Amino acid sequence: MSSRAADPSWKSYLYWMLATCLLAISTTGLLNVLIDPLGVFGSPRIPGMNSVKPYLDHHRHLARLAAARRVCAPTGIFGNSRAEIGLNPLSPAFLERGINAFNHAIPGSNANTAYRQLLWLEAGGCLPKQIVLGVEFFDFLGGAPAGTLPTLQTTPPPTLDGRFLAESVFSITGLRDSLTTLIAQHAGFAATITDRGFNPLRNYLQEVSRNGHHVLFRQRAEENLRNWSSRSKRLHPIEGGVSDDEMAVDAIITRSAAAGSRIVLVIYPYHAQIRLLLEHMGLGELFSEWKRQVFRLAERHAAAGANVEVWDFSGIGNETQEGIPAPGDRSTHLAYFWEAGHFKKELGDRLLARLMGKENGFGTKLEQQTLEAWLSQDRAAVRSLLMTPSPLTADVEQLIARFTTAH
To answer: Mean pLDDT of all residues in the chain?
Structure first.
């Protein structure tokens, strides 16, 4: 036995080091549970300490599911980032009618994700009785072959397992998230998420003040053109059959209708810039065909007794033609859009009010008798706008010219 190992002072040092490490880890864990950045432990929300939750980019499904189960709202909003930042569950459209709603939307997700979320909610006894589902043309674009629908066995609900505890509680990451939470309590432009799943996108207020809306519109348009050009111009797999997203939307309607839920499929509001770019890229007719496809899917279920509707908010109108500020304009804050693909809650409030029965002139309910007339009218409005000289059409032509030159 070495003299060092037998030295009592050395043993005391090792014990002291071990105790210090355990104390540090335990203290970190307790602090992270108390602050609860992701809101998964249900720790009390203390003003000035953790009442405002930061918008974190990890464990989103677990955090959203934990919050959803606590609220167990009878009305659920599902979709991607457009729904997450545009459809406020505390909208006047809901509050005035005493409707309890929750926003389940996850950025970058598709209908397959929404179906999986519904499975988890149903397993926990919280399947919404009213479902607002944003359907996305760009998820259907390319006609990805249908895969296998998720089940509770293949994709069980996320839980507070050992991996989560190691990554987000007893870790530097967890401590960083807690510090971010503390900072968010007093930061005017922090990225946050509400306890009902809504992302107010406050951090974009600073982005607009720093760079202006024009930069945001331009960046998003260039990104869209790259993405669209990489997809095949079709809605179904090349070998035939339904696409993955069509299969998922069909499954959502089937499962929700079986539970007696009302399902509202929402075609998102796009700024007119997107509609003009789609036309320039040869996707205008396909966009109309996609709307027809979504309606036919819903109509088939409605004929079997499902309570399902389709609403189109992508049409050309005053709201979607909001003027894009000029380059260098950092003082103008638009009323309805952050950039062409993401609308603000102010426009989302008008959308939700229409779904709840208020006649405000925004959006069109797709119905069998008027479907073809509406699609023709909508396409004609886009073409008319495209042929009318304006700052918007000039901007679109410049975007197309730059993209064509670069590719």
So the answer is: 94
- Closest of 134, 360, 157, 362 to residue 266, by C-alpha: 134
Given the structure tokens 């030295």, which residue do they identify?
A: 7
Query: Is a pLDDT exceeding 60 seen at residue 56?
Result: yes
**290-to-34, 286, 302 alpha-carbon distances in Å:** 48, 6, 18
Q: Is 381 among the domain residues? A: yes
119 with 210: CB under 8 angstroms?
no
Kindly report the backbone phi and psi dihedral angles of residue 131, in degrees, each rounded to the nearest multiple of 5, phi listed first: -120, 120
CB 249 within 8 Å of CB 361: no
CB atoms inside a 10 Å sphere around CB 54: 21
Residues sharing a CB contact under 8 Å with residue 53, sequence separation 6 or more, in sequence order: 37, 38, 39, 181, 184, 192, 193, 194, 195
Structural domain harbouring 95: 67-158+212-406
Checking if the pLDDT of 260 tops 50, the result is: yes
Instruction: Give Cβ neighbours of residue 355 (< 8 Å, ≥ 6 apart).
Output: 93, 132, 264, 266, 311
Rounded to two decimals, the pTM is 0.93
Burial 316-349 (b: 16+ CB within 10 A, else e): bbebbbbebbeeeeeeeebebbbbbbbbbbebbb
**Which segment of 59-73, 163-177, 204-218 scores lowest on mean pLDDT?**
163-177
In this structure, the answer to whether residues 344 and 397 fall within a common structural domain is yes
| Residues 318 and 388 occupy one common structural domain | yes
Is the domain of 15 the same as that of 128? no
Question: What is the separation, in whole angstroms, between the first and last Cα of the chain?
Answer: 73
What is the pLDDT, as a whole number, of residue 116?
A: 98
